[in-house]
Amino acid sequence: MCSQDKRSPRRQASPPSERPEADQALRCAAEDRLRELATRPSESIEADWPEAARQLLYELRVHQTELEMQNEELRRVQLELDATRARYFDIYDLAPVGYCTLSEQGLILEANLTAATLFGITRGELARQRLSRFILKADQDIFYLHRMQLLADGQRQACEMRMVALDGAPFWAHLETVPALASDGRRVLRTVISDITERRQTEAELRIAAVAFQSQQAMLVTDANRIILRVNRAFTQMTGYSAEEAIGQTPFMLESSRHDADFYRAMWKTIDRKGCWQGEIWDRRKDGETYPKWLTISAVKCSDGSVTNYVGMQYDITERKVAEEKIEELALFDSLTHLPNRTLLRDHLKQAMTTGQRSKTFGALLFVDLDHFKALNDTKGHHQGDLLLKAVAQRLTASIRESDTVARLGGDEFVVIMGNLHRKMEQAVTQAELIGEKILIALNQPYRLDDADHQGTASIGATLFRGHETSSDDLLRQADLAMYKAKAAGRNSMHFFAPAMQAVVLEHAALEASLRMAIQEDRLVLHYQAQVAADGRVAGSEVLLRWQHPERGMMAPTDFLPLAEATHLIVPLGYWVLETACKQLAAWAARPEMAPLTLAVNVSAQQFREADFVEQILAILTRTGADPRRLSLELTESLLVEHAQESIEKMLALKARGLGFSLDDFGTGYSSLSCLQRLPLDQLKIDQSFVRNILSNPSDAEIARIVVALARSRALTVIAEGVETQAQRDFLEASGCYLYQGNFFSQPLPIEGFEEFVRRH
Ligand code: C2E
Ligand code: CA
Ligand code: CA
Fold first, then answer.
1. Mean pLDDT within 251-273
2. Is the same domain home to 425 and 279?
3. 720 close to 743: Cβ distance less than 8 angstroms
4. Which parts of the sequence belong to the PAC domain (predicted)?
5. Residue 10's pLDDT is what?
6. Cα 486 from chain centroid?
């Protein structure tokens, strides 16, 4: 129907051909007549015209006018038609889709401009091309099928396929074709071709987004009000909440309460400002477990900048955290023993130095080296060696305070750091030495390695530090040197780096040796300090240990008891005291003035914890024949509270035989009253530190009053120790305490002196 020249809107129309025949005849006759008349002068003509002719002329003129009007109308309609046709061709050519008329064989008969543009070719060149030329090879079948189907059912058909422009640029096309009849009666196909590349891309992106949304990463999408719209499977797996449970809620449902309101405020502020936030956050799963995750929140904005959605992407970093910890462990801890390695040791040493600097206290560094470790490794193999190192690590850790550090430098070398020791060097050496001794004893115990027994010892080099006076490298060198001295001295020993420190140690060693001798040679004595009632009567006495030292003279227990405890000598020493006191009770039993007196004996924690403590006491009572009712044991709070149940059992067993128990130094410990309530005590002893300032310090006075009230409520007696003045005694009496001990009445005296004191009262 269409051809190239149809485009021209200015083509002339042919005159109308469908006039009636009568008109045509009339016009011919009139024209002939007019021609003849034209040869004559007009006035003569008209004058002799018959009426009929004049009438005819009139009609002819009227008809001519009509004709002219019709012609005018015809021209106007023609112009309008031309404009409409031009408009149609404009619309047709510039339509957003391509139009082609194809022959049944697929030959392009005619196309609009858009189609030509789609294929990158002029319209003239496009005509007579096969449409298949512009179809991607792979999609040729689609078009073939499309055409076949059209020809078969004569119905409108649509298909999508990839086409290529002349320059090779591919694009996605939607084809919609209807069969039609051309003006010449041939069957043609009218095809509409739309470029759907963009739509296809969007669809692909949506598909990708949909797949991506179901990725490994947990995701949630909220609206602008943070109401959850969608979550993916990974989200469900991670949080335990199904999509149904999550949708409609806010992400608040995941909050772990590990972060405060300020944290979330800052997070949302960043999202508002930057459009996104990411960081580590702790959330709570449905089952209540909290876990760390890495969260990225992005705001989705529309063109005007307002937020339409928030997308949260998150992944569980529990495993990563564990891995990080593992890496840290590898970097800072020894993999065999899990003790800090050299790097972490330096760190801890620096900390201990800084703390010491502030508190002006000494710290100690011990270099522990196993004796003959190489021999074990060489003869029994590395596996046994490893087992030993692990056991040593455990024993070392058990020997130190929680605040101290044990590190492994490598091989069989360990280092112990102790902070916050005494401010005085001698005392600090003693403390370090005690721990060192403890370590040596611990490492001396037999080891069970797989199925084999092993006996090992260690050598310890020690040095003290105060603040940052000595560098950490120098300290390690000092301790190392000292350790070699310990090895040289015969192993299984401890040596201090500095001569002054070592001198203290040597002195201790000498002291220990002579204390052992003292026990054997009976150079220990008991002194008796009277316990006096409010009416002045002597009720009994506390026995206090003294050591008659050949060179140093009479030594107080505070000078040698710590050493005795460290070397475990306290146990035989304690039994010696008990035995001596019981002998004394037995001897007094025969003397009426002394028989009613009681004796209070101090019992150390180490001794009380001995498994056979009860049996030993009973054996002593039997051996000496002392009356158990005259014997009272003084225990301290810490001793009782640490192993309360065991203590109670031992106390009850002895109480059944008539022994009494007094709680020494009461008020200085931190035990809870409820714990004390359970202990089967007979007496509370107000510590001398409260008595000392009872008149000047109201809170000390208050404590004394509370102890009295407490004792009274539990039907216990109460005694005050360290009473030095009449005023203190009177104040105590006024507070309800009627039993006293202290220098105001009598110092601790040798037995003769004490008996003399009793006789005088
Ligand atoms: P403790 O059990 O608190 O003994 C009381 C201490 O206070 C004694 O010191 C005593 O001499 C002293 N004292 C008594 N009255 C006064 C006074 O009026 N003013 C002042 N300032 N001090 C007074 P000592 O004899 O030096 O004993 C010290 C600690 O040694 C005892 O403290 C006790 O814990 C322990 N101890 C003494 N003998 C033995 C014993 O045979 N075995 C055990 N395990 N520990 C003992
Ligand atoms: Ca005591
Ligand atoms: Ca005391």
1. 90
2. no
3. no
4. 157-208, 277-329
5. 39
6. 46
pTM: 0.51
Query: Domain total for the chain?
Result: 5
Per-chain residues with Cβ under 5 A from ion ligand 3: 664-665
Question: Is there a domain that residue 559 lies in?
Answer: no
Domain containing residue 313: CATH number: 3.30.450.20
Distance 748 CA to ligand 1 centre (A): 9
Most informative mutation of 524, 543, 544 for ligand 1 (most atoms within 8 A of CB): 544
What digits encode the pLDDT tens for the residues 99-157? 999 998 899 999 999 999 999 999 889 988 999 999 999 999 999 999 889 888 889 99
CATH number, domain with residue 471: 3.30.70.270
Domain match, 354 and 274 both: no
Residues 500 and 359 reside in one and the same domain: yes
Ligand 3 centre from 664 Cα, in Å?
A: 5
Residues 300 and 384 in one domain: no
d(C-alpha 64, C-alpha 30), whole Å: 11
Q: Residue 674 pLDDT > 70, yes or no?
A: no
Check whether residue 104 and residue 192 sit in a common domain: yes
**Residue whose tokens read 């460290």:** 566
Closest CA to 412 of 452, 450, 454, 451: 454
Say what the pLDDT of residue 17 is. Answer: 47
Domain that holds residue 414: 339-508
Cα–ligand 3 centroid distance for 638 (angstroms) = 13
pLDDT in tens, 75-106: 999 999 999 999 988 888 888 999 999 998 89
- Note the pLDDT of residue 376: 87
- With a Cβ cut-off of 6 Å, ligand 1 is lined by 529, 544-545, 556-558, 561, 574, 577, 602-604, 634, 664-665, 688, 721-724, 742-743, 748
pLDDT digits (tens, 9 = 90+) for 20-47: 677 778 778 878 877 876 776 666 666 6
Q: Is the pLDDT reported for residue 427 higher than 90?
A: no
| Residue whose tokens read 């196993």 | 370
Report the candidate in 433, 416, 420 with the shortest Cα–Cα distance to residue 503.
Answer: 433
Q: Is 406 within a domain?
A: yes
Residue 211 lies in a domain: no
Q: Whose CA is nearest to atom 37 of ligand 1?
A: 544
